[in-house]
Amino acid sequence: MKILIVDDFSTMRRIVKNLLRDLGFTNTQEADDGQTALPMLQAGDFDFLVTDWNMPGMQGIDLLKNVRSDPNLKDLPVLMVTAEAKREQIVEAAQAGVNGYIVKPFTAGTLKEKIDKIFERIEGS
Amino acid sequence: MDTQDKLMADVTLDQARHLIKCLESGKVEEAREAIDGLSQIREASLFCEVGKLTRQLHEALSNFQLDNKLTGLAAQDIPDAQERLNYVIETTENAANKTMDSVEKCLPISENIKSTADELLNDWGKLYRRELKPGEFRKLAGRVETFLTSVSSDSSQLNGLLTEVMVAQDYQDLTGQVIRRVITLVQDVEENLVHLIKMFGSTEEYQKAQKQDVKHEGAEGPVIDKTREDVLTSQDDVDDLLSSLGF
């Protein structure tokens, strides 16, 4: 399982990376915004994307939309981990095809729960 | 009534009495002069009012310049505040990294203690169940001794690392002080701006703007205003919203 973590704050990337490792996902890479992340996704064989929303360059929501409109990436599971919590933003992310949405600050338990749920659903479908 | 006004009233009253006297005694020419005198007084008091207003305006302007810290704020305090806030970002980032460095060093130590302890416990059980072969007890005893020695030194190492984590939290005090100063600056700027609006703008519009709902668009980071109704406050609320959308 190869996972890309996208966040403009290196400390947050590090936290997510450590939590993922704790859950048994050791193969992770990092990008600091959507613009850097998109070519990595297009070039690499990533199985899962964890992204922040509010980033300079390309924001997480636009990265999600780009992923969904790319024929090679459209089925990539995407988990949003963000401080953005406006009702209309969550609706927008849902409409854009996000697979999970976590609001910061979050706990290790929440991350595990959402990831489990995403994979359960993928395996079930 | 100030002394100047009282003086003027007295003079006017005198003039008026004089006018009546003139009219009663039929001194038309003198009466006409008295009327001229009265209208002069009126003009004089008008000039006096204009003078007062001019003085007030002048005072207001020079007062404003006296209180006016805007130049200083723009030239010194605001650039200084930017530096201070950058310092907060750097300091909190360093603290987070220092903490994670230490935690990442702690994790393999505690994982190792756990796995060795699990193995020993397993073999210890064999001892109780008399499943150990004759030579194995000596080996197990040796492993227990090595483990106890390593736990002792591992614990000191963990203590050291945990102390580092604790000390790394000193950023809270440092950044707290810096942020408090920036808050004072923001209050200062607000006061000066309000003053400026009172002098040159419309207080009414300012009060209207205070009550206006601001439209929030796009990404804005964590929302602190708990009264806002367009923002969800917990993961549970987010989950509820998503499940209502069919998630």
TrEMBL record, chain A:
One GO MF term attached to the UniProt entry: metal ion binding
Keywords recorded for this protein, A-Z: Cytoplasm, Magnesium, Metal-binding, Phosphoprotein, Two-component regulatory system
Name the record gives this protein: Response regulator receiver protein
Gene source species: Pleionea mediterranea
InterPro entries reported for this sequence: Bact_response_regulator (IPR050595), CheY-like_superfamily (IPR011006), Sig_transdc_resp-reg_receiver (IPR001789)
Main location: cytoplasm
NCBIfam families registered for this protein in UniProt: PRK10610.1 (NF007901)
Keyword tRNA processing recorded: no
PROSITE patterns, A to Z: RESPONSE_REGULATORY (PS50110)
Keyword Magnesium in annotation: yes
Modification type 4-aspartylphosphate: residues: D52
BP GO annotations: phosphorelay signal transduction system
Organism placement in taxonomy: Bacteria, Pseudomonadati, Pseudomonadota, Gammaproteobacteria, Oceanospirillales
UniProtKB/TrEMBL annotation, chain B:
Keywords in alphabetical order: Chemotaxis, Cytoplasm, Flagellar rotation, Hydrolase, Protein phosphatase
Gene3D superfamilies registered for this protein in UniProt: Helix hairpin bin
Swiss-Prot/TrEMBL GO biological process terms: archaeal or bacterial-type flagellum-dependent cell motility; chemotaxis; regulation of chemotaxis
Family matches, as InterPro entries: Chemotax_Pase_CheZ (IPR007439), CheZ_family_phosphatases (IPR050992)
CC per GO annotation: bacterial-type flagellum; cytoplasm
Cytoplasm among keywords: yes
One Gene Ontology MF term: phosphoprotein phosphatase activity
Signal peptide positions on this chain: none
Enzymatic class: hydrolase
Site (Enhances dephosphorylation of CheY-P): Q177
Primary localization: cytoplasm
Claim: Cytoplasm is one of the keywords in the record: yes
EC number: 3.1.3.-
Localization annotation: Cytoplasm
Function in brief: Plays an important role in bacterial chemotaxis signal transduction pathway by accelerating the dephosphorylation of phosphorylated CheY (CheY-P).
Family under the similarity heading: Belongs to the CheZ family.
Subunit record text: Homodimer.
This protein's name: Protein phosphatase CheZ
